[in-house]
Amino acid sequence: MTDAPLLDVENLWVKFRTRTGVFDAVRGISFTLGKERLGIVGESGSGKSMTGRAVLRLIRPPGFIEADRLNVHGEDILSLPEKGMRKLRGGRVSMIMQDPKFSLNPVMTVGQQLVEALRAHENVSRSQAHKRALEVLDEVAIRDPQRVIDLYPHEVSGGMGQRIMIAMMLLPNPEILIADEPTSALDVSVQLQVLDIIDKLVRDRGMGLMFISHDLNLVAKFCDRIVIMYAGRIVETCKASELRNAQHPYTLGLLNSVPDLERPRDHLEVLKRDPAWRDAPSVSARQ
Amino acid sequence: MSTSQGLRDWLLSEEPTSRRQAKYASWYKGWLTLRSNTLAMMGLFVLAFLILCAIFAPFLATHDPFAQDLGQRLLPPGEDGHLFGTDSLGRDIYSRLLYGARISIYIVLLVIMVAPLVGLIVGTVSGYAGGWIDVVLMRVTDIFLAFPRLILALAFVAALGAGIENAVLAISLTAWPPYARIARAETLTIRNSDYIHAIKLQGAGPFRIVTKHIWPLCISSLVIRVTLDMAGIILTAAGLGFLGLGAQPPSPEWGAMISEGRQYILDYWWVATIPGIAIFAISLAFNLLGDGMRDVLDPKEDNS
Amino acid sequence: MSAVMVKDLNVWFGVGADRSYAVRDVTFDVADGESFGLVGESGSGKSTILRAIAGLVPTWSGDMTVAGETLGPKRSKSFYSKVQMVFQDPYASLHPRQTVDRVLSEAMGLHGVQNINTRIGKLLDDVGLGAGFRFRYPHQLSGGQRQRVAIARSLACNPSILLLDEPTSALDVSVQAEILNLLVDLRREHKLTYIMVSHDLGVVGHLCERIGVMREGRFEEVLTVEDMRRSKAESPYTQHLLESSINSVR
């Protein structure tokens, strides 16, 4: 068991049928995820979110997935029936979306939602589930779980909402956590808190984290390994600690286009997109 | 082939070079969306067929729709050259159906020229102005909505006198409140959007904002609603005809035809059934088309 | 002369007992040609100040003078030819059924600009979009291109003051760089005054000379970007903001 990576993806394509032909959102990428924090970085339209969704087979028609291999812990999920996928999603693989406002049900209290989520995957009594919900809220550093558990989603702040989402995703003890821009809807100071919580949980529980973000600096700070995507392909992959030695002009462009308070410049560097990047073969991020 | 291919490319170009091309291109894309919806195309096909029938009724009819022949009364379909049989006065049902299509389409056209327009104006003004204007207009709308539609139409017809034009007027007067509600709801969401703020900051007055910026966005949901309501309008007209308050005999309005066939329904089923099928067909066609229009006119359309 | 003077501005929402203040006793001046930044977390009232200046929030009290004109409850027509605004979300600030051409020509028509045809071409060049974009609908444009169109619209009447409400927060960093460069260039070329709202200190630091730090509707402090760079902020809140923003970059 230990030798199989948590997630093993080879030659993954996500395609959409359109009026003018087939549009490829993700074009033949390969990567693996171990018990590590893997950052997937790219601009909007680079296919990074599609990759996250494809792993859970959440692509809706007219989109579809093709891959040579798509394994979760050695188990092929490409051929898994939809019922098995439902068990997998939110069970062994969890996903945190960008905005907690849209992922929490507005007419149920936080506690009800947590209990529902747990009981959907495990056969536990209501009181036990309630107890577990309190524990998990405590785990995501919510100070007063007794009070928060009876609140409705509109009564909590964005940062707290995102922590509740994380708590909900953690309830069934997933092996893999996919976080799709989990902090971009939050204020800077709250961002760091939420990231710290994710970080601590991933370490303590030995999960694999797939962290999808447009913010290269944030990912570099937070992840072990980085995959950089452009136009549906992986253009570069490196250890986060070695990002400063990155070679690809796209990576460098992303790094340099961020305005920096401490290095004032008259003009920011602008990416000059080379059409050759689009055609270059995808770099494998397998380990 | 090559010119049609060229035209298609011109229409689907990502970089239109004139206002005209941009406009035609957006129409063409809407048409492509509609065409990919089989059911909507079936609806459109049935409607086109009915409209052609109405236009060419004098050529298609085998008999005079008003000619009575008591010797030939209540003949079953197919007998003696009467395709759909004859009614209690010996008139050819097939020919009456064709001429009746004219009346039904006439009613529909008149209603859609009045009701949605009134609804659009009332709804957008009320939604955009807010305050006491909103309160007054919406309470008036509520009063109209509180009456059952057919009863209200009956009251109007009773007051105005029986006849097709009055029936249309009565139907329009009862049909506008839902449109006003929709238009108001749309306006409330649109009026706080950034593009309305932006045009306000350009110094545009309320009249321009409502007519040029809010109407185009409301019209799509109204068109959808109108096509879906068409069936109801035809049925109300038929209902009035059935009660003897719409089209007057001997005019071959479909509802009136059913009404006349009612007393024979047990022994001579076709007299009432065949106009009933016609009403069913046109209502269903409008419903299917309306469903397809929803896909075409949704402003959140995704072109990827 | 000051381009914008705001004194004791209060903005509230709701009536009676529900009245809640979004902005409280805010006072600041922006000199002609200056670029002033407003930073703070979400809900701190920074965008509300811009909306109050632009006349999009009717419930305010205090004194506001913009380009020599004292503002009352209603904005005059000439106000809108001097002050324009760029909104945060380029996906929501363009009418979904209008082509770029229609948007720009209507804005010019409203301000009585002559030679609309040639002006549109020039304007599109100014914001770095070619003539090929002129007849496109918003759904045929990327986020950055839409924001360029929105900037072009705001420049249609040659205003002297631009209110920028997080103009780049919905965009990718690479596109953000392009838009920020464009704003720097346009300011130089047209001698514009900016008031910019952002939650990103890096962005504000790049474009502005002076910054007002807001918290819960009040000014925590006003300081120059130079002071901010040298971490010479007085209030602990500003220090905290600075630290977390630098932490997230490094």
Throw out a few tags for this protein.
heterotrimer; A: 287 residues; alpha/beta; five-stranded antiparallel beta sheet; globular; C: 250 residues; six-stranded mixed beta sheet; 10 strands
Q: Which strand order spans the largest sheet of chain C, edge to edge or round the barrel?
A: 6-7-8-3-9-10
Distance N terminus to C terminus of chain C?
A: 40 Å
Query: Which CATH-level-2 architecture of chain B?
Result: Orthogonal Bundle
Total strand count of chain B, please? 0
SSE string of chain C: EEEHEEHEHHHEHEHEEHH
Notes on the protein architecture:
The complex is a heterotrimer of chains A (287), B (304) and C (250). With 287 residues, chain A is an alpha/beta fold. Chain A is built from eleven helices and eleven strands. Helix content of chain A is 35%, strand content 24%. In chain A, strand 1 (7-18) and strand 2 (21-33) form a beta hairpin. In chain A, helix 4 crosses helix 5 and helix 5 (126-139) packs across helix 7. Chain B has helices spanning 2-12, 19-35, 38-55, 57-60, 93-129, 131-146, 149-160, 164-191, 194-201, 206-242, 254-261, 270-297. In chain B, helix 7 packs across helix 8 and helix 11 (254-261) packs antiparallel against helix 12 (270-297). Chain C is 38% helix and 26% strand. In chain C, helix 3 (100-110) packs parallel to helix 5. The model of chain C has no long low-confidence stretch (mean pLDDT 87). In chain C, a hairpin with a 2-residue loop joins strand 4 and strand 5. Chains A and C meet through helix 8 and helix 9 of A and helix 6, helix 7, helix 8 and helix 9 of C.
Topology record:
The complex is a heterotrimer of chains A (287), B (304) and C (250).
Chain A lengths: L6 E12 L2 E13 L3 E5 L6 H8 L7 E4 L2 E4 L2 E2 L5 H7 L4 E4 L3 H4 L6 H12 L4 H14 L5 H4 L9 H13 L5 E5 L7 H18 L2 E6 L2 H7 L2 E6 L2 E7 L9 H8 L18 H5 L8
Parallel strand pairs in A: 3-9, 3-10, 7-8, 8-9
Antiparallel strand pairs in A: 1-2, 1-4, 1-5, 5-6, 10-11
Helix pairs in contact in A: 4-5, 4-7, 5-7, 7-8
Chain B lengths: L1 H11 L6 H17 L2 H18 L1 H4 L32 H37 L1 H16 L2 H12 L3 H28 L2 H8 L4 H37 L11 H8 L8 H28 L7
Helix pairs in contact in B: 2-12, 3-5, 3-12, 5-6, 5-8, 5-10, 6-8, 7-8, 8-10, 10-11, 10-12, 11-12
Chain C lengths: L1 E12 L6 E12 L3 E5 L6 H9 L5 E7 L2 E2 L6 H6 E4 L13 H11 L5 H11 L16 H13 L5 E5 L7 H18 L2 E6 L2 H7 L2 E6 L2 E7 H5 L6 H14 L1
Parallel strand pairs in C: 3-8, 3-9, 6-7, 7-8
Antiparallel strand pairs in C: 1-2, 1-4, 4-5, 9-10
